[in-house]
Design brief:
Layout (H helix, E strand, L loop, with lengths): L2 H7 L14 E3 L4 E3 L1 H9 L8 E3 H6 L47 H11 L1 H56 L3 H25 L10 H10 L6 H16 L14 H4 E14 L8 E6 L2 E5 L4 E5 L5 E5 L10 E3 L5 E4 L5 E4 L6 E5 L6 E8 L6 E7 L7 E6 L5 E5 L13 E6 L5 E5 L4 E5 L5 E5 L10 E6 L5 E5 L4 E5 L5 E6 L10 E7 L4 E6 L6 E10 L15 H4 L4
Antiparallel strand pairs: 1-2, 1-3, 4-27, 5-6, 6-7, 7-8, 9-10, 10-11, 11-12, 13-14, 14-15, 15-16, 17-18, 18-19, 19-20, 21-22, 22-23, 23-24, 25-26, 26-27
Length: 569
């Protein structure tokens, strides 16, 4: 057969990024990936949530309808794969590690595919979180080994030199003077001592038959050669073994953990990854992130659950209060907590039907303006302003997750009583600080968790005016605040020092005035909402990423080889 003809009939797939040999396929971006590009793909924060599988698995299990486990009708199936051949995977929230009891009508091939789908959450955590975390720890161990070996070598060398010097001094002392004369003198002294000892021995030898004396016993012991018997050796060994059994190993310090600075790094140039128009709102005054796929967005009148892939409305809350502020938040279970038109604090369960009144509004002199749920304690922070006077004044109330009041800020003489005027947005930092975006004071007012005023940020060092709107914090304890005066999103450290502008008018994709902010703890990106007139744009900005240089061959040194990870990695 003509080899030229054969080569023209063979199509070799190459990596979409580097033209290497294709070994994996990403359903999220529909790209072919080589092994090196795949390693970067699954740890990069912008793509780590994509479904990546080995190319052999993709060809072995083509997209097709799969029967559901809950149905008793063998003809009923799960929703068919979409026309663009996206994988029919179960949502990560439905992962349950219990034992699967297969229905009788499922073939082994179908059962194997369902099992892989149900384990998708575990695979996702392993490939995107666990392996990368172990790589960071291994990097730290390698560094410590190199520096520690050098430190131990230097320390050991110095100790050896010190001990060697002591030995040298002793030898010099022995060799000082006439060594021969000193040895003769020492020999004479030993001879005299032995002669004296033998004289005592012979004097008291005859007394051994009539009486026992301690000196004679001592002399007999000294003049005899003794060796341990086998029974004595066994006794000593048993004593040593029993002592060793009593030894307990005690941990020598805190286990090694990777810090945030080891895992993440700030990008030199933040980028807007994508933008979408949100259906059902005219502005994006406030955003509460549930998952990377779903966020709550509000303007003055509307509160919408939005699909971040399409911008379409998934659910609408009809009784939210009409304010332009941070009137809603999300708890650790992903449930919505918002202020309704009666100024009550309401919780909406994930079924989008059941509501619970957490805090009943009874004091008509104070009106809730913003609310935030602490992810660490579950407490509710509510920013309020006084509505029975012409002078604006505000306060912050802390409630537990059942609605019981725990704290009022300000509450003592160490905190100014006119600390707040109009608390529009509120959040909490990792160190427990309470941060309030106070539009009336043109400042970000920060107090400690105990309610003591720490600082107030009134603008960057350039001296420009500040009109703070949305506010959030990230995993590195940075404070992000949107400024409607300069149309920027500014970054501060935890102590209120200005660091940089994350977004400006010159940032590609930022053609609107930023207002609402929400930090996504899963992807470490920030959602930015528009406050411009009749502009319902919402964007994803990335300014944090992982240390991608850690994606090397060590990923498979821990036992995660290609065959083990092909189901979802």
């Amino acid at each position: 057969m003509d080899p030229t003809r054969i080569s023209t009939q063979v199509s070799v797939k190459h990596c979409s990024l580097c033209q290497g040999d294709t070994e994996y396929y990403c359903y999220g971006c529909q790209q072919d990936l080589c092994i090196q590009c795949k390693k970067l793909h699954v740890i990069d924060l912008s793509t780590k949530h994509h479904i990546v599988t080995s190319y052999s698995e993709k060809m072995k299990y083509p997209p097709k309808p799969v029967k559901t486990l809950q149905s008793q009708d063998p003809k009923q199936v799960i929703s068919a794969r979409s026309q663009n051949h996206e994988p029919c995977v179960m949502p990560f929230t439905e992962y349950k590690p219990h034992k699967i009891i297969p229905p009788v009508w499922l073939s082994p091939l179908e059962l194997s595919e369902i099992q892989r789908q149900q384990c998708s959450r575990r695979i996702y955590d392993l490939r995107g979180e666990t392996i990368y975390y172990r790589s960071v720890l291994l990097e730290g161990l390698r560094y410590d080994r190199e520096t520690g070996h050098k430190a131990v070598t230097i320390r050991g060398q110095s100790k050896a030199e010190m001990r060697g010097q002591v030995l040298k001094d002793l030898i010099d002392e022995v060799l000082a003077g006439d060594l021969k004369d000193r040895c003769i003198i020492q020999k004479t002294r030993m001879t005299r001592h032995m002669t004296k000892l033998l004289r005592y021995y012979h004097r008291f030898e005859q007394l051994s038959e009539t009486m026992e004396t301690r000196p004679f016993k001592f002399l007999r012991i000294v003049t005899q050669k003794h060796s341990l018997r086998k029974d004595d050796m066994k006794t000593i060994i048993n004593i040593l073994v029993n002592l060793m059994k009593e030894i307990r190993l005690v941990p020598s310090g805190i286990p090694r953990r990777a810090g945030v600075e080891d895992l993440l790094t700030l990008l030199s140039s933040p980028v807007v990854q994508k933008s979408l128009s949100v259906t059902g709102v005219k502005y994006c005054y406030h955003i509460s992130c549930v998952t990377p796929d779903r966020v709550w967005v509000s303007d003055v009148k509307n509160l919408i659950l939005t699909d971040t892939a399409t911008g379409k409305q998934l659910h609408r809350v009809k009784d939210s209060v009409n304010v332009m502020s941070g009137k809603h938040t999300v708890n650790c279970e992903g449930e919505l907590i918002y202020i309704d038109k009666e100024n009550n604090i309401i919780k909406l369960c994930n079924d989008m039907k059941t509501t619970t009144t957490l805090i009943k509004h009874t004091d008509t002199t104070w009106r809730p303006q913003c609310v935030y749920c602490s992810p660490s304690s579950g407490d509710l922070l509510v920013g309020m302003y006084r509505c029975d006077t012409e002078t604006f004044t505000g306060k912050v109330m802390r409630y537990d997750n059942t609605g019981k009041r725990k704290q009022t800020i300000p509450h003592n003489d160490n905190t100014p009583h006119d600390l707040y005027r109009n608390p529009d947005y509120i959040t909490e930092n990792n160190n427990g600080d309470v941060l309030v975006s106070d539009y009336g004071r043109h400042a970000v007012v920060v107090t400690s968790g105990e309610g003591v005023h720490r600082f107030s940020y009134t603008g960057p060092p350039s001296g420009s005016h500040l009109e703070p709107r949305g506010i959030c914090t990230d995993v590195m304890s940075h404070i992000l605040v949107s400024d409607s005066y300069t149309h920027t999103v500014q970054m501060l450290d935890r102590d209120g020092q200005f660091l940089s502008d994350v977004l400006t008018r010159q940032t590609p994709g930022m053609n609107y005035k930023p207002c609402g902010l929400s930090y996504d703890v899963t992807t470490h990106a920030v959602w930015v909402g528009s406050g411009s007139y009749n502009n319902n744009t919402m964007s994803v900005c990335r300014y944090i990423n992982r240390h991608l240089h850690l994606a090397d061959e060590r990923e498979y040194d821990c036992g995660f080889d290609k065959e083990q990870t092909q189901a979802g990695m």
